[in-house]
Design goal:
alpha+beta; Tetrahydropterin Synthase, Chain A; three-stranded antiparallel sheet; 10 helices; disordered C terminus
């Protein structure tokens, strides 16, 4: 593998050379580009491209840009500036064989019409303006003589439009052959050597004078007649005019009044419309102001609402979430505590129930043994249980009054008709507050044992002393 070493200085030199060559080419191209102004015609000659298969000696351009190939093409400009040519035609022979002088001025210029520009490039290229003027002047002289020879002096003198039209037509067609166009024709005056035109003028003047005199006489006659008729008509028309004037004044006054009324009505209507328009505009302005204020208030309310939502509601939501979380945590703690308490209560009740069940079971077993001991007689077994608890029952009866305290009782008893005393009744009632033994046995479904006494039908009431003084009943 070979590595080619390149000198940086040589590379820079090559680049600079290429840039210089490109710049020179661009400068050369720009130097060969030609722009045609609007007041000139650019004529390119040399090697010119044929148009529609017809070879051309030159290429004429009016306005635009064209590239001129070096060595094979060249160019020149034709000036479009108008040229004024003074043509003093003298001794021109008319159709009546009368020689006349026709002084005139022609304005011509190079034509921009296609085809005619080609003629100008072929016949006028390289000529000075004076040379072009002389060439055009010769053509105009010849055509002007030709036109004069085909017309009478009367036509030339009276019908100038026809004369100028004939001159323009003949001269224009001939000027196009060399690339020119006719812009204007101005004939100043026409004279002749024999004085024919002057005589025609005098004849016309005399005729005009006679006609004028005749017309003056006729006008004077008509004036006198007209004056008399005018005086007559004046009086009639004055009277009629006065009447018409009065009528017209009245009508005018009426019209003025009507016009004033209409004007006032229009002014009032205009004032009303203006007032309505002002009030309407003011109301609309206020309405728009109110709407703007309402929109501002709504925007402010929305902003404050957003601020509150951001400052309060969001904070409240956060607090709410925190409280919900705390409440859920507390509820969970309570649920767990309640569950623990419920489990403890359930365990306690379950233990108590089991204890009660065990006690009842033992009691049932004891009662069953007791029934067996009583020879399978349940009634006797129950009586045995009550007899076993009789001591406790009596103790309960005694405890019912053991807490009663009597410090001192004074009784004044005068006795009663049936021989009983109040003191005895008081003691008897006090003892009756204790349930009798017989009733206890009856409630239990048993009879009082005979060794405790039998029930008597009548109980004799013992006598109680009438007066018991300073008797203390103590527990």
């Amino acid at each position: 593998m070979y590595i080619l070493a390149v000198d940086p200085g040589s590379v820079i030199g090559i680049i600079v050379t290429v840039i210089v060559i490109i710049a020179m080419v661009l400068i050369f191209i720009v130097s060969r580009v030609r722009k045609c102004p609007s007041d000139k015609i650019l004529v390119i000659y040399g090697s010119v491209k044929a148009v529609d298969g017809v070879s051309q000696s030159a290429n004429c351009i009016h306005g635009g840009v064209k590239f001129i190939w070096p060595f094979i093409q060249a160019y020149q400009f034709l000036d479009l500036t108008p040229m004024s040519i003074q043509v003093d035609l003298a001794n021109a022979l008319s159709r009546q064989n009368i020689r006349i002088d026709v002084p005139s001025r022609f304005t011509v210029a190079i034509s921009t019409e296609q085809g005619v520009m080609q003629n100008a490039a072929e016949r006028l290229l390289g000529l000075q303006l004076t040379e072009i003027q002389e060439l055009a002047k010769d053509i105009i002289f010849g055509q002007l003589r030709l036109v004069v020879a085909t017309m009478d002096i009367e036509e030339i003198n009276t019908d100038r439009d026809k004369f100028l039209e004939a001159v323009s037509g003949n001269v224009e067609s001939e000027l196009k052959k060399i690339g020119l166009r006719l812009i204007n024709v101005n004939v100043t005056d026409i004279n002749d050597e024999s004085g024919y035109i002057e005589a025609l003028g005098k004849e016309a003047a005399a005729k005009a004078i006679n006609d004028a005199k005749k017309s003056v006489a006729e006008k004077n006659r008509d004036g006198s007649i007209g004056e008399a008729n005018a005086h007559r008509d004046q009086r009639v028309q004055v009277a009629s005019a006065n009447a018409t004037a009065v009528e017209g004044e009245n009508k005018s006054l009426a019209e003025i009044s009507k016009t004033d009324a209409d004007r006032r009505e229009i002014e009032a209507e205009s004032l009303r419309r203006a007032t309505v328009a002002e009030k309407t505009a003011e109301a609309k302005s206020r309405e728009q102001a109110y709407v703007a204020e309402q929109n501002a208030e709504l925007a402010r309310a929305a902003r404050e609402k957003a601020t509150l939502e951001a400052d309060v509601i969001v904070k409240a939501e956060i607090d709410k979430k925190q409280q919900e979380i705390a409440a859920e945590a507390a509820a969970e703690v309570l649920r767990r505590e309640a569950k623990g308490q419920a489990d403890a209560i359930f365990a306690k009740l379950d233990a108590e129930a089991r204890g009660s069940l065990e006690i009842l079971s033992k009691q049932a077993q004891g009662f069953e043994l007791l029934v067996k001991a009583a020879n399978e007689d349940a009634d006797k077994a129950i009586k045995l249980l009550i007899a076993d608890k009789l001591e406790n029952l009596v103790e309960i009866q005694v405890k019912a009054i053991q807490n009663l305290k009597f410090d001192k009782i004074t009784v004044w008893d005068s006795g009663s008709k049936d021989g009983s005393s109040s003191t005895a009744n008081f003691a008897q009632n006090l003892m009756k507050s204790i349930p009798p033994m017989n009733e206890l046995f009856n409630m239990a479904g048993m009879d009082l044992p005979k060794f405790l006494g039998e029930k008597k039908a009548d109980v004799e009431t013992k006598e109680i002393p009438n007066v018991v003084e300073d008797e203390e009943i103590k527990e």
